[in-house]
Amino acid sequence: MATLTGERHSQAIWRDYLELTKPKVVVLMLITSLVGMFLATRAGVPWTVLVFGNLGIALCAGGAAAVNHVVDRRIDAVMARTHKRPLAEGRVSPAAALTFALALAVAGQAMLLVFTNPLTAWLTLASLLGYAVIYTGFLKRATPQNIVIGGLAGAAPPLLGWVAATGHVSAEPLLLVLIIFAWTPPHFWALAIHRKEEYAKADIPMLPVTHGEHYTKIHILLYTLVLLAVSLMPFVIQMSGLIYLVCALVLGARFLQWAVVLYRGSRPHAAINTFKYSIWYLFLLFIALLVDHYLLLSL
Ligand code: HEM
Ligand SMILES: CC(C)=CCC/C(C)=C/CC/C(C)=C/COP(=O)(O)OP(=O)(O)O
């Protein structure tokens, strides 16, 4: 009995620490960095870069997410969506979480330095600091444009993957970063409309709180149009082929449809459904890039 309770306890601790890393968000980021890596070279990516490069990026992203939990613990405790988080409820102490974050970041940086190249390590460190310090520490509480500027850190993984595989920055991965950069506002503001009251309660200046729902919906619509245009660019610059073009058009048209439905206010739950669709959109778009790349190579 005592062992069972002990086991359950250690499982709960393990789960708390995993939650600090925002695992689902990091998994989607890893898919984008993997695609960045695969698209970078025709010759194939060495397995050490594939495994330790992505692990290094994931550890740094997870470390940044753990810092976000520490800095935001008081506002997380106020919002229904986040009040059960490990630091908000006091199950993990800020000192323990910061030590954990530092360990992840150091391990991640070491992996990138040993198995990839210094440029990948520097760019990953910049993304880590961009999210953990600039977005979380300053922008989030300062301006409703917080997620637009802070979105750059979350958009970086395809570039990190590309640089890990090649050692240099080029136009193609920057285009992939631009796609995620344009995707972030509709992704987040849809959720922010759904959770508007909570952000207001926590005194966080998210766009629906500061400028109202109507203004936010117009901006979601505009960014979705920009996203649709930018998502066609890989075909335009001949980085991707027809399979990608068709997928980008279909996925983008559906995103636009959600943005219009949200704007018109004709359907209940439109905001949360737009948010959920945004995640499927990004996942499927990057899978389309990958499938298109390998089908083109095999022709
Ligand atoms: C500054 C940029 C971003 C902001 C402000 C943001 C905001 C959020 C928020 C607040 C949630 C939580 C929803 C909830 O708890 O129900 C969320 C969920 C999610 N985000 Fe983002 N996000 C950003 C960038 C990204 C990026 C770059 C990715 C991946 C490439 C991503 C992938 C996801 C995924 C997969 C979820 C679902 C997580 C789950 O179900 O637990 N986000 N995002
Ligand atoms: C090295 C690298 C690639 C770093 C990227 C780090 C990273 C995990 C970015 C995630 C973006 C994100 C989920 C923002 C939401 O934060 P929030 O505080 O607004 O949302 P919350 O209220 O759910 O905590």
UniProtKB/TrEMBL annotation:
Q: Where is it located?
A: Cell membrane
Q: What class of enzyme is it?
A: transferase
Q: In which pathway does it act?
A: Porphyrin-containing compound metabolism; heme O biosynthesis; heme O from protoheme: step 1/1
UniProt xrefs under InterPro entries: Protohaem_IX_farnesylTrfase, UbiA_prenyltransferase, UbiA_prenylTrfase_CS, UbiA_sf
Output the superkingdom of the source species: Bacteria
**Any stretches that span the bilayer, and where are they?**
25-45, 51-71, 92-115, 121-139, 146-165, 171-192, 220-237, 243-263, 275-296
Kindly give the Pfam families that the UniProt entry links to this protein.
UbiA
Q: Which UniProt keywords apply?
A: Cell membrane, Heme biosynthesis, Membrane, Transferase, Transmembrane, Transmembrane helix
Q: Which reaction does it catalyse?
A: heme b + (2E,6E)-farnesyl diphosphate + H2O = Fe(II)-heme o + diphosphate
Look up and give the membrane topology term. Answer: Multi-pass membrane protein
In short, the EC number is 2.5.1.141
Miscellaneous note of the record: Carbon 2 of the heme B porphyrin ring is defined according to the Fischer nomenclature.
Family membership: Belongs to the UbiA prenyltransferase family. Protoheme IX farnesyltransferase subfamily.
Q: What the protein does?
A: Converts heme B (protoheme IX) to heme O by substitution of the vinyl group on carbon 2 of heme B porphyrin ring with a hydroxyethyl farnesyl side group.
Name under which the protein is recorded: Protoheme IX farnesyltransferase
Species: Pseudomonas canavaninivorans
Source species taxonomy = Bacteria, Pseudomonadati, Pseudomonadota, Gammaproteobacteria, Pseudomonadales
> Which gene carries the instructions for this protein?
cyoE
